[in-house]
Write a structure and sequence with these properties.
15 strands; Alkaline Phosphatase, subunit A; three-stranded mixed β-sheet; binds zinc ion; 17 helices
Length: 504
């Protein structure tokens, strides 16, 4: 049985689980389970839907076998800032959007057969940033925070210390192997995470030339946008047009260059800037730069139809890259989960996570997992917490309503020792910090898209969290995932899958 079939089965079981355990079931468990070939056993224990679906899942998992052929394709998917609490809250949110209670739902990628925990620290920071974490994932070595694919010896924002220490990224290695390469993101294409796939330098904030200090210019460092338009990428989709256009036209470039023109001047290179152009593009060949916003793409709930979403960009990228008979390497980033968390805004973090879930739902069914390594992870966590004792199916971003002494749901909000109500989701720090006496929260306010969950420590921008993140995988060598991994091991796993062996 192939991974494709097994993943499909696993998703089917997950869906059945979601329907049956949501309390919205229209079919009984016996009907569903008999079709999977399980033997019906009658006892008070085995009569429950939970027991039978658990047995069914064990039955599926014992049939799982490792895939050890070389990977033709590698797809790495990053939910930026999508820590464990984001996953739990995100799955409940996505399930509740479908009318389920939510807790029983599975995000699409949570059904991939292999997983592990990942340690995210940088060489110089206990709690990391996205530049250091993506540099680790892309180059096979941890680095300092804030640097883009240069060695751990390089000091941040010190060009002289970084020259000659540029590290070959997994995307660049895949290009050397003859594969097509691409990167897709909802952030600026020059932002830290996508930048670490194609650029090198000691400072993530050098996105346009106007941001380079004199020392950097004197020592020959170049901005990230200019590195993109001279890169070997076949596909680069995201936001961030202003780093490519001159100040005279509202951009950030001091050199008066229009880098989109420089890209277009290369043979076979194309540029698109809205959803319609992307849809009409012939993605059978050529190199494609798509910049759909001046800065980051708007959040999902604030986008108009001129701007393609993560799924649309991913579909176009896969269409182009899969034309290469040598295979491809693709990085996909749902980058604005992180931004919503920084804003202390749980709703948009969950909406962005839902978009990633929907994109992966398509991708998992589209690619051939017998020759494609698919990895889904986060670069780091945030300080989001999920707490209190809300009843099953309580709106994930709502006010906590608990159960009575018999375990039956109450209709009025729980009140704490301070006499006030509270929400399930909160942040440890950030712009939602409250001063004492703590105000209560009513349900209508908590469910507003702009609502900032309460926090303890006041900060203009909520911070990253330092705990481990999850990684999920399927396809060649995905079975090497396991236990608690160092983040830079992810590179070695992908390289091993491409070459079929380890090379030092
Ligand atoms: Zn961040």
């Amino acid at each position: 049985m192939s991974f494709v079939q097994k993943t499909g089965l696993s998703l089917a079981i997950a869906t059945a689980t979601a329907v049956l355990l949501s309390g919205c079931a229209t079919t009984g468990p016996s009907e569903t389970l008999l079709s999977s070939g399980l033997t019906a056993v009658s006892s008070p224990q085995s009569a429950t839907q939970w027991y039978q679906l658990g047995a069914s899942e064990a039955d599926q998992r014992q049939q799982q076998t490792a895939t050890t052929g070389k990977a033709k394709n590698v797809i790495l998917v990053i939910g930026d800032g999508m820590g464990i609490t984001s996953l739990t809250s995100g799955r409940i949110f996505s399930g509740q959007q479908l009318g389920l209670k939510g807790e029983e739902f599975h995000l699409s990628f949570e059904s991939l057969p292999y997983s592990a925990l990942v340690k995210t620290y940088n060489t110089d920071q206990q709690t990391p940033d996205s530049a250091g974490t993506m540099s680790a994932i892309m180059t096979g070595t941890k680095t300092r925070a804030g640097v883009i694919a240069v060695s751990p010896q390089a000091e941040r924002a010190n060009c002289g210390s970084s020259k000659g220490t540029e590290l070959t990224s997994l995307i660049e290695f895949a290009h050397q192997q003859g594969k097509a390469t691409g990167v897709v993101t909802t952030t600026r294409i020059t932002h830290a995470t996508p930048a670490a796939t194609y650029a090198h330098g000691p400072e993530r904030n050098w996105e346009a030339d106007s941001q380079l200090p004199e020392e950097a210019k004197a020592n020959g460092c170049t901005d990230i946008a200019s590195q993109l338009v001279t890169s070997d990428l076949d596909v680069a989709f995201g936001g961030g047009l202003k780093a490519f256009t001159p100040a005279a036209t509202g951009g950030y470039r001091a050199d008066d260059q229009d880098l989109t023109a420089n890209w277009l001047a290369r043979p076979g290179h194309h540029f698109v800037s809205d959803a319609q152009q992307l849809q009409q593009a012939n993605m059978k060949n050529g190199q494609w730069l798509g910049l759909f916003s001046g800065s980051h793409l708007p959040y999902v709930d604030e986008r108009d139809d001129k701007i393609p979403g993560l799924l649309t960009m991913t579909q176009a990228a896969v269409e182009r890259l899969s034309q290469d008979s040598d295979g491809y390497a693709l990085v996909i980033e749902a980058g604005r989960i992180d931004h919503a968390h920084h804003a202390g805004n749980g709703y948009r973090a969950l909406k962005e996570t839902e978009e990633l879930h929907q994109t992966l739902d398509w991708l998992i069914n589209q690619v051939d997992l017998s020759n494609t390594l698919l990895l889904v992870t986060a670069d780091h966590s945030h300080t989001l917490t999920l707490a209190g004792y809300p009843t099953r199916g309580n709106p994930i971003n709502g006010v906590v309503k608990g159960n009575d002494d018999r375990g039956l749901p109450k209709t009025t909000p729980e009140l704490l020792e301070d006499g006030q109500s509270y929400t399930s989701m909160n942040y440890r720090n950030g712009p939602g910090a409250v001063s004492m006496p703590r105000p209560g929260v009513d349900e209508a306010t908590a469910l507003q898209p702009d609502y900032q969950q309460q926090a303890l420590i006041p900060l203009e921008s909520e911070t990253h969290g330092g705990e481990d993140v999850a990684i999920y995988g399927a396809g060649p060598y995905a079975h090497l995932l396991g236990g608690t991994m160092e983040q830079h091991w992810i590179y070695h796993l992908m390289r091993y899958a491409i070459t079929g062996k380890q090379e030092i």
